[in-house]
Amino acid sequence: MLKNGLKTICKNLGRNNDPVIAVLGIAVFKGVFRPLFTMMDKEEPPERKKYAAFREGLTEAIAFCSYFVTSYAAKALAGPICKAVGKTSDSAIHKTEKSLSFLAVCLAAVAIIPGVCNITLKPIMEAAQKLQKGKQNRPQEVKTLDIKEQSVDETLPKQAISPVLSENARNLLSSIQKPAITSSAGMKVGG
Length: 191
Prior knowledge:
The protein is 75% helix and 0% strand. It has 191 residues and is mostly helical. Helix 2 packs antiparallel against helix 3 and helix 3 runs antiparallel to helix 4 (90-137). The longest helix has 48 residues, at 90-137. The chain is elongated, with a radius of gyration of 38 Å. The N and C termini lie far apart (108 Å). 10% of the residues are buried.
């Protein structure tokens, strides 16, 4: 039973297999995993990793679209080609679709994808870099604290640094400290 089931699955995959399905799957996996592996590289600087990962993902997106469009166009041509030759049976059209789809995938891999990448990648990458630089150059709201500290001369021995106090704060501090000093003066210790 398992042997017959496996045999049926293999026959169905063989009969219904389309070359474009395989290359679309490859393009999707490369479009996901190549950028991930690029971002995992610990030796490269982060900006270089981001650039390379974006470029690889964009290349595979172009490849996916190119494979899909060329295969669809090839399949659309199968019917008219079969009619021109005089073979209008469904099996002839099906075989022609598969053959043209394979040729379209090969053509896309050899010529269309490199050509489209040469035309589109440079402007897209430049636009992405300008956008990234624009985000970095945008002024951000910075909150500053107004803290005054005494400067310390590094050549002098280290001593406690006291904060700079306004005149009112010094008067308040001295008024708080005076009663504590005077009240403890009259106490006798050990007597």
